[in-house]
Amino acid sequence: MSSNTTLVWFRRDLRLGDNQALCEAAGRGGAVVPVFVWAPEVEGAWAPGAAGRWWLHQSLRALDAALRERGSRLILRQGESVACLLEAVRDTGAGAVCWSRCYGPARRDQDVEAALVEAGIEARSFPGALLSAPEGAVNKQGKPYQVFTPFWKAQVAGIDSGEPLATPKKLKAPQRWPASLQLEELALEPSVDWTGGLRGAWQPGERGADAALDRFLDEALSDYADARDRPDLPGTSRLSPHLHFGEISPGCVWHAVRQRAATEGRKGLVRGEEAYLRQLAWREFAYHLLVHFPHTTDEPLRPAFARFPWREDAPALRAWQEGRTGYPLVDAGMRELRTTGWMHNRVRMSAASFLVKHLLVPWQTGARWFWDTLVDADLANNTLGWQWTAGCGADAAPYFRIFNPVLQGKRFDPAGNYVRRWVPELAKLPARWIHSPWQAPAGLLDEARVVLGDTYPSPIVEHKAARERALLAYEAVKAQG
DNA sequence: TGAAATGTTGGGGCG
DNA sequence: ACGCCCCAACATTTC
Questions:
Q1: Nucleotide nearest the Cα atom of A408 (by C1')
Q2: Which of these, A149, A231, A342, A469, is most buried using a 10 Å CB contact count?
């Protein structure tokens, strides 16, 4: 025990590579004590959901294993963050605490920093979860950006994130390790195991993140501009949960994509690379909005939407959640979500639009369901996505843009293979009818063993009528701007 | 990061 | 050969 021991407070940066806080601690030459504090109460209503807790459990185990390969280990504590950290400082005699900042409405970072400073402990925090720190970013009027493209051009597009920081080869252990809870004691995994589908779909942890990035670069990036909209193809990066938990840094991903152009001797980026970096920039934009408008997790950014005549419709909500709306693309997406904890973004837009516009259920209700079921549930991205869909957010889709789930299916799942995978009771229908089985000739339905209203539901709302109802509801918002 | 309604155009069938 | 109509294809506007 000596005052040149440094605590590394792991937050949502569950990696050893390109980790500023860890490198800072290791570079001091003294002992390093990695600590994770499970303090869900701080986030209040937005404590991690069930799927996110499952992922967190796996990721903490992977982080501990990686630390042990380097002569270290992860200390687990549970309770209020300030109290736990001060206690860990006392237990180890540490003189400093390093961490990667978490951006969001919770004020934990500020509380911890103030408490450490007051206790005479050095506090060093780093912006490792984002490409650029959001606090000071403002437009020419001195206000936060509310439109993506100017934000992209001024704040993100030109970033050169440079070489990622190397992984420390060895971490000096303290003379005696402080007490730690067992991972199981945090009770992050569900008591009734429903996570088989998650286990089959993902490899949480830094190694899984690196593997996902390598696959994406080798197999999907060049076609990303077009294939990213195709839920039937492996055209996306699938990095979202890894990025959420910081198993890979956005700077590392950004650098890897740009490096690809550099090694091929290109000055500019090809379409796919540019399109993917823009997606990473949407993540930055989401955090920018969350930091500057923290109330938008629960309230629409555009105040006029307080007047919107949302409906209470428990049976329709349940049908949506369970993937039995009668619209195959929506149902496929909602079942993919429940099974794997993830849904393709193109389908997220269609499914979310269906809940908000066809069913007139409040976007907050959808956001809450996604929060509990997505392994990549992220307060910034989830808030942005739902407010975008509902038309009440920054740079949002106008309310009168109403997705037609049949047309979206025909356009982006042309052979119907995505629907066949997740809605197997429709698998034998030919592509022509698979997105609108109610229009199929009776003989074909018979051959495909489909009985509407029995083996697969009839549509719970009729598209044209639902569209007109949504447009009528929107009048209430339009009236006074 | 829509879709539907409405408008325009041009090729081809046909009297 | 000509004008007329139909309608697909595309463009524009409206929600």
A1: B2
A2: A231
Asked whether residue A88 carries a pLDDT value surpassing 70, the answer given is yes
Q: Is the pLDDT of residue A209 over 70?
A: yes
* Domain end among A292, A312, A330: A292
Q: At what angle do helices A345-353 and A379-390 cross, to 10 degrees?
A: 50
Do A337 and A427 fall within a single domain? yes
Structural domain of residue A448, as residue ranges?
303-478
pLDDT of res. A479? 66
A246 and A330, same domain (yes or no)? no
Q: What is the mean pLDDT of residues A152-165?
A: 93
Nearest to A216 by CA among A182, A241, A244, A253: A253
Bridge-partner residues for A36, per DSSP? A10, A76
* Predicted pLDDT of residue A40: 85
Chain A residues 115-154, Cβ below 7 A from strand B: 148
Q: DSSP assignment, residue A295? A: G
Residues A60 and A93 grouped into a single domain: yes
Spatial contact of A331 and A422, defined as CB atoms under 8 Å apart: yes
DSSP single-letter state for residue A420: H
**Each residue's pLDDT tens digit, A300-328:** 999 999 999 999 999 999 999 999 999 99
Same domain membership, residue A449 and residue A347: yes
Three-state DSSP class for A77? strand
A354 and A238 housed in the same domain:
no
Cβ of A467 < 7 Å from strand B?
Answer: yes
